[in-house]
Here is the input.
Amino acid sequence: MPGTLVRFAWAGENRGVTTVASLYGPVAEDLQLVEDTLDLTAQTDFLPLQEMLQSVLSRGGKRLRPAIALLSGGFGEYDAQNQVLLATSIELLHTATLVHDDVIDASETRRGQPTANASFDNAATVMLGDYMFAHAAELVARTSHVGVIRLFAQTLKTMATGELRQDINAYDAESASMRDYYARIYGKTASLFETAGTGGALMSGATPEVVSALGEYGRCLGMAFQIVDDVLDFTATAAELGKPVGGDLLAGTLTLPSILLMEEASGGDVVRRLFASEDEGERESLLAEALGSIRAGDILERSQATALEWQGRAVASLEGLTSPSGRGNPQREALEGIAAFVVSRKF
Amino acid sequence: MPGTLVRFAWAGENRGVTTVASLYGPVAEDLQLVEDTLDLTAQTDFLPLQEMLQSVLSRGGKRLRPAIALLSGGFGEYDAQNQVLLATSIELLHTATLVHDDVIDASETRRGQPTANASFDNAATVMLGDYMFAHAAELVARTSHVGVIRLFAQTLKTMATGELRQDINAYDAESASMRDYYARIYGKTASLFETAGTGGALMSGATPEVVSALGEYGRCLGMAFQIVDDVLDFTATAAELGKPVGGDLLAGTLTLPSILLMEEASGGDVVRRLFASEDEGERESLLAEALGSIRAGDILERSQATALEWQGRAVASLEGLTSPSGRGNPQREALEGIAAFVVSRKF
Here is the structure.
């Protein structure tokens, strides 16, 4: 979507975000510790595992979730060691779910690079993901904060349920309700953003009000993030996505743009025929037709507007949060900057 | 110690162990609480998930691991609630690994019943296993015992590495060393038995010596358990196994009997040809030849003798352990009874 998007957002002002790292100001150094801890994760004495871990972890990423976890610790008593353990654990959990998703979707590329299960076999990839979950659990356990440890376990349950919900709803044109969609994207994406906020705040011993506000920030931003992701699946190029355009629809996953399309009589018909068809050529032509309809009308703008509503809620939940240092409010500003980035990103 | 059992396992005399539950004397009631907690695990508000959980958890099992975890708590200050949480968590972790193994092996039956991935699809099964891991982690986190929580996470790492090791060694005739074999079976089986002993003892605040002794008991018994399993793969009927006889060899997994076979010149040749062949008919006839050679000589007796050595070590590690109650030593007797059962079992 256009560069006017940030203007579209809560404040209407383009903050000139060029790189993600610049957003992370107050926690930039600790994010480097997160990177180092991730690198250490790949060190094991079983060489084939080490190679798999390096291949998966070296793909990079925007590190939004760990940044939120670190920043959310800034409204209480920030203990760098524990905040970094939690932040790393959250990023590792995220990466582990991507590894398992790739088995599930039988994806061959992610971010333009071969997925684990394209490089290794399915069996090894399932085990790789399990190992990463376990390592993430070990990192969070090292904090000795039982509340955060339990939150972590609950989040993994929520995420697994969300993925299962998506899998079970696949190719089901009747799952085209906003309620189903929100349940799916909360589970698969927003729940972990929420845990970054809640967990980061809990770790620092912040008050219940602060914990709740940062959890709400994470949850709403996660919803915005996934909606933007779902819009990009229709607007970006295959090269930008590192996977085929319209891939969600082809995989039978209804997202906001295709749900809006189904509200139009002819659009609904195209999607239903696409989901029912087993003929490769017919599927391609129906997908092209659906993509054309989605791009022609105002569906993408309306979807983006919904993402902006969620982003607005995320930012509104920060209302009243002040940094205990008293020297400005750098954590809150960074969280607002991340929110602006999430809805303006092109990748 | 049940010397007669050892004789039986070697000499083939049936001691008449008909039910496993009779072994669990001092913890029989708390094992029922483990069953109840497992039943509760299957309660979720997402119906398809609930059905999957019920189908996987209702298959039963011998509950050896939770029994060991409960019994190992009997040498310190036994807190029933926390011991039951840990024991349930260990059984759930075990069941979750079976679910993921079935995806990996593309198994269609386990214990004679359809596996999760035969009933559901691969994607749903991966997520089901993830959910179960997460629930297991949540249960153990409820104990608030950070040492045990960390042990739990480390065990899952060890198990995933063990499965990966088996996967990577598959169809590799050069992985026929006892060292490779022991590393694989420690990872996939003995590590969780060890955690049942170590974790159960840690939870009760037992002394480091007691914790170490019970961990050693679990580790050695787990090795014995897996060796017996690997022998049964050649001696039991398909009906008893609930899967094809010689399935390990067919799947390219070298176990103790086939490693011993490979020490014989002609046997090594058969296994190498089996691993190299892609012709279905040839594979069947080579498997039959390998099975015949394994059964004809003393390979199975020697394998069983190795299992008995490990069982002997398990029992020896209990030397000197006394129940704090002072009223006999029912926990130790039960652990010895379990050890005897493990090497005499026919299923």
